[in-house]
Amino acid sequence: MTSTLPTLAIPGQRLAPVSSYAAGPGTHVQNANIYASIAGPVLVNPASSKTAKSTLSVSRSPLRKAAPSASPSAPKSTAPGPSKPRYNTLPAVDSIVLARVTRVQKRQATVSILVVLDESASNNKSGPQPTTTTTTPTGGSSDNDNIEAILSSAANPENHSNSDELRFQALIRKEDVRAVEKDRVVMDEMFRVGDIVRGTVISLGDQSFYYLTTARNDLGVVMARSEAGNMMFPVSWKEMRDPVTGAAELRKVARPF
């Protein structure tokens, strides 16, 4: 008799024997048992054939709750409200993130992840941007979930403090900055310390760093200050300009929306 599968799993929790299920993403096998490798909801993917086993996996994203079925006695809503978006509490592969550059080296740039954008934000770029979730290593959301306030505060040099150490850290390697002429990339011309960058997660990396890429037209620097301390605006995919002094500075610029 097989034991009941848990709804949520924590890392290292035993889920089921390999005789009953196949191990999927977010799990590992040890001593003929399947264990959770990450924290999250437990999912069972049905077998594709009668001879195969169902696949057991642990998701990084919380499950979307099904909308309750309408009953005849329930009052009808006058206007359909927007559905509640689903958030990632942890950066996952293909997650779109906003991050602040904290260090620029010859081969890579180190960034501190500020926001993990909702999945629908990357799929529906033409619509209004939904509320986002700020991240901390504990997986909690910040009280200040207003993206404009987060970015305005992050772009202010006076607010750069040791709080970066409490956020998820990531690396943008030289070969992941842009899709063309990778061998001609100069990191100091792509990013500067304090820039706000939109990137996507390409690897969970190791225990210290995620790996991001900006090698798409919609990815790159979205906010930056000039050497004079003024907010700049983009004039091309590789240049931003100070509206006060008129000076131009090189950046790997994200396509503005």
How would you describe this protein?
This protein has 257 residues and is mainly beta. The protein has 2 domains: 8-58, RNA polymerase II/Efflux pump adaptor protein, barrel-sandwich hybrid domain (OB fold (Dihydrolipoamide Acetyltransferase, E2P)), CATH 2.40.50; 95-121 and 146-250, OB fold (Dihydrolipoamide Acetyltransferase, E2P). Helices cover 7% and strands 31% of the residues. It contains 3 helices and 17 strands. The chain has a 5-stranded mixed beta barrel with strand order 8-9-11-13-12. Strands 1-6-7-3 form a 4-stranded mixed sheet, with no helix packed on it. A hairpin with a 2-residue loop joins strand 4 and strand 5 (33-36). The longest helix is centred in the middle third of the chain and has 8 residues, at 147-154.
Can you give the mean pLDDT? 78
CATH class label of the largest domain: Mainly Beta
The whole-angstrom Rg is 22 Å
Order of helix and strand elements from N to C terminus: EEEEEEEEEHEHEHEEEEEE
Protein name: Exosome complex component CSL4 C-terminal domain-containing protein
InterPro entries: Csl4 (IPR039771), EXOSC1_C (IPR019495), Exosome_cplx_N_dom (IPR025721), NA-bd_OB-fold (IPR012340)
Biased composition (Low complexity): 59-85, 126-142
Region (Disordered): 53-89, 121-146
